Amino acid sequence: MSTISLCEPKYLELKNRLTQIQDLEVAISVLNWDQTTYMPTGGTFARGRQIATLRKFAHEKFTDPNIYQLLEELRAYEKSLPYYSTEASLIRVTRRDYERAVRVPSEFMAKLSQHQTVCYEAWVKAKSLKNFSLVQPYLEKTLELSQELASFFPYKHIADPLIDFVDEGMTVSILRPLFKELRQKLLPIAEVIASAPPIDDSCLYQHYPKEKQLKFGRSVIERIGFDFQRGRQDETPHPFTSSFSIGDVRMTTRVYENNFSEALFSSIHEVGHALYEQGISPELEGTPLAKGTCSSIHESQSRLWENIVGRSRGFWEYFYPQLQGIFLPQLSRVSISEFHQAINKVVKSPIRTDADEVTYNLHVMIRFNLELAMLEGKLSVKDLPEAWNESYKKDLGIVPANDSEGVMQDVHWYGEMIGGMFQGYALGNLIAAQIYEAIVKFDPEVTFGIERGNFTLLRQLLKQNIYQHGRKYTANELINQVTGKSLSIEPFISYIQDKYSNIYNLNFAIIA
Amino acid sequence: MSTISLCEPKYLELKNRLTQIQDLEVAISVLNWDQTTYMPTGGTFARGRQIATLRKFAHEKFTDPNIYQLLEELRAYEKSLPYYSTEASLIRVTRRDYERAVRVPSEFMAKLSQHQTVCYEAWVKAKSLKNFSLVQPYLEKTLELSQELASFFPYKHIADPLIDFVDEGMTVSILRPLFKELRQKLLPIAEVIASAPPIDDSCLYQHYPKEKQLKFGRSVIERIGFDFQRGRQDETPHPFTSSFSIGDVRMTTRVYENNFSEALFSSIHEVGHALYEQGISPELEGTPLAKGTCSSIHESQSRLWENIVGRSRGFWEYFYPQLQGIFLPQLSRVSISEFHQAINKVVKSPIRTDADEVTYNLHVMIRFNLELAMLEGKLSVKDLPEAWNESYKKDLGIVPANDSEGVMQDVHWYGEMIGGMFQGYALGNLIAAQIYEAIVKFDPEVTFGIERGNFTLLRQLLKQNIYQHGRKYTANELINQVTGKSLSIEPFISYIQDKYSNIYNLNFAIIA
Q1: Is A270 a catalytic residue?
Q2: Which of A8, A334, B164, B308 is surrounded by the fewest CB atoms within 10 Å?
């Protein structure tokens, strides 16, 4: 077809422009990474300006009318290609990104960004003073701006565009019934566990020297498959993973000497994100396709490694003897069963980030529902702390000691916006279970590998089915593709029932 | 004047544009710094592309016709202001930079940059195989391109534009007679020292554990005045200093466990560069004025601290007892006089970067003269190794064992170009001596401070006279301003004679 060959140079031009924009985006990421890892405090002011300038240039380059022109000219070429081919996917994903970018006026983005900084600072202060009223007016403005942002897009539910930013294809009409069902199943499970004799996890809270923790963590993530030739691990106050190219993926961790779980499980969590980014097909390098497809799929990969693998009995069959050898005084009298129970202890606690696998989703769904209620105008920011505490009382049976441990615990609403901030965490857990179930069904050898510290098979299957594709598939497309089914809560619930009935020696069948 | 007030918004617009370009330049520096300090090897390919993209954008933004327009519109405003005011200086320096940037076609810059990469790789290989002929054709091309680059500018001598890039205002007609005189004075001094009994510096080549070296070096540079709140020190294969803002200046070092001098003196050298960058007036932050004015003045600051201060007897009166305490087995039997002699040993060696203060300039002038001869067409690249060896025989009395220790020892010609590469090193030594002489004459307390480990006065005088001004003054303007005289070799020669007549117990008066 002559149309195709005519279009190819246009495709190359588009790709070339996108790579240059990507290079600017990466520079922003490097400046951010540097700021949180090694930058001296004196650099703070200029660094803020430098990042803002690069953002502005990247935005200008991407919303350039030439990009629109190229996308229009490439329509026929795109249609002539298989839907999931690299070329068609790049054009399709770029068109979606472009339409999203141009719908929002840049003055609005500047206003939002400025407000986010101010609101974040107010939150830091309000949180340290345990006084929600100090941040309330700012959060009210955030809510207004979030609603305004949504209004630039067509929607069925006002939260849909905000959810779509991070989890493309997910909507309130999909998530509300799904989460309702999830909550109904989880509440009785959490109840039954709460009535069982509590697990003693004091072994995790002894003194674990930092250097030894870092060394052990490093050996674990290397064994799991993190490629240190194509990445690094550094320390930061809050762990994160950042990709500067497929050959340079950086993860960070933090160490608490009196809490063994923190560094290790956050490292395994981040290695899940990092393997995803390291596993993207080199063919996609330098294009917008070269990253994890969305927040929920990304989180599914971190949670799969952190929880399904990293907190499994099989995993510790391999690693526990090594761990005992390194921390002899601390663990010599702790059996593998006791250790495995300790790292899986279920507690109804006020803080999401400390939560176990059973209660974690309950924390997330509380936030999701409050977000919807605020966006819908059914809940005012003024009444948010009360609504928060009521939800916690109802679903977790506790009331936070104060608003810093309650409604102000997470940065998301205060530093970003209201809407789309939390569903990815719960979805990640559901998707992880659904994908893992499908993979083990496909090749049961996976679990035997884990028990022998051999993660190659699992990693290869994930790479082949998920990692390599980058952004070619949306979350829903990928879930269908990999598991043959749409997203459902069943695999997660059955995973939780199996695992915790063993750990707590309970029978959930009666409540199911 | 109404012209002025009309122009002020234009000035702010110019400044704002320049700051954004500066932000791009800083991002490039951060990417470079990251590449040499922490980047995993897997990131190499993408990093090269990322830096090239940012360079391209920075160049585009700077050569934008709007910049020209603004500079034209600001002529009257500039003239209405004092010459060295920040505003007039920014316009003047930007105009010079702009004229330089637009004279060279961007296709030529791309060609040069591409060739530099290829030639650099050929040099790495040729050097490791000790075979100049492998890099010869590439260096021939470099010579051609260097001549072509010069041809875009008006000149008296073909090397002038290339020198002007890094040492604005310096020309062959200034440098050739200056260096001729310098060589005539230095050769007999080096000769007399060579005939004196050699110094035993074996104490420096014992085993000095790395961590202790780094700790001591850090305490020295902190004492000298490096502000760790506004900077860092990291390790790299080749030491350098990079400024990301006045509040974030980073220096690097390298440690050899069997050579005490390397890490310490390269750290003191780099701290000279770093103090300069940290000492620039905050008023200039984010503008093109916010950096050291040129290569020779920058080098004068690093050499002043490294040699005139760091290798002085007074400096070690303060630091030697500490050093002995840290390295007890190594230095317990080495007196301060023996140590001071060891760190000032003069040797006619084949390698520039290992050279002492007396012979260093001889190494540099050999290169300068060879550069001129090649650019003039009087020396072909084919004959360069022979000419190199002849010069070394004549001025240093030695012939390098092979071309890797001879003509291929420095990266400059192979990685950058021929012309303007070396004069800054010799000028730095001359300027350092001239400035230091003037400062001590102005306030002799400076030397007493050094003996007590108190560098505040020296640092303040340097800041006040040099650092704070950034690029407002050219090298020649600054030398005149600070010393009341034009550049001359006398202060350097008299410094060398005083210092080495003491160290070697000689009388140079007879040869002077």
Answers
A1: yes
A2: A8
Residue of A nearest to B51 (CA): A23
Task: Say how far apart CA A488 and CA A427 lie, in whole Å.
Answer: 10
Q: Does A211 touch chain B (CB under 8 A)?
A: no
Chain B nearest C-alpha distance from A252 (Å):
13
pLDDT value at position A110?
Answer: 86
Query: Which tens digits make up the pLDDT trace of B76-103?
Result: 999 999 999 999 999 999 999 999 999 9
Q: Which helix (H) or strand (E) holds A243?
A: strand A241-245
* pLDDT tens digits, A455-512: 999 999 999 999 999 999 999 999 999 999 999 999 999 999 999 999 999 987 665 4
Q: How far apart are CA A102 and CA A55, in angstroms?
A: 15
Q: Answer yes or no: are the C-beta atoms of A162 and A423 closer than 8 Å.
A: no
Tell the burial category of B214 from Cβ atoms under 10 Å away from its Cβ (0-12, 13-18, 19+). Answer: middle
Domain span holding position A92: 2-150
Residue B61 falls inside a structural domain: yes
Q: Which residue of B has its CA nearest to A50?
A: B23
For residue B190 the two structure tokens come to: 């080096």
- Residues A40, B246: C-beta atoms closer than 8 Å: no
- Do the domain assignments include residue A31? yes
Marked catalytic residue, from A270, A277, A371, A416: A270
A166 touching B, CB under 8 A? no
d(CA A500, CA A341): 10
ipTM: 0.93
Please tell me the distance in Å from B469's CA to the nearest CA on chain A: 19
Examine residue A73 and state whether it is found in any structural domain, yes or no.
yes
With respect to residue A170, please indicate whether it lies within any of the assigned structural domains.
no
pLDDT at A368 over 70: yes
Taking the Cβ of residue A29 and every Cβ of chain B, the question of whether any pair is shorter than 8 Å is answered with no
Please tell me the distance from the alpha carbon of residue A286 to that of residue B50, in angstroms, as a whole number. 9
**Could you give the CA distance from residue B476 to residue B91 in angstroms, rounded to a whole number?**
19
Q: CA-to-CA distance for B334 and B208, rounded, in angstroms? A: 15
Domain count, chain B: 1
- Judge contact between A274 and A266, C-beta under 8 A: no
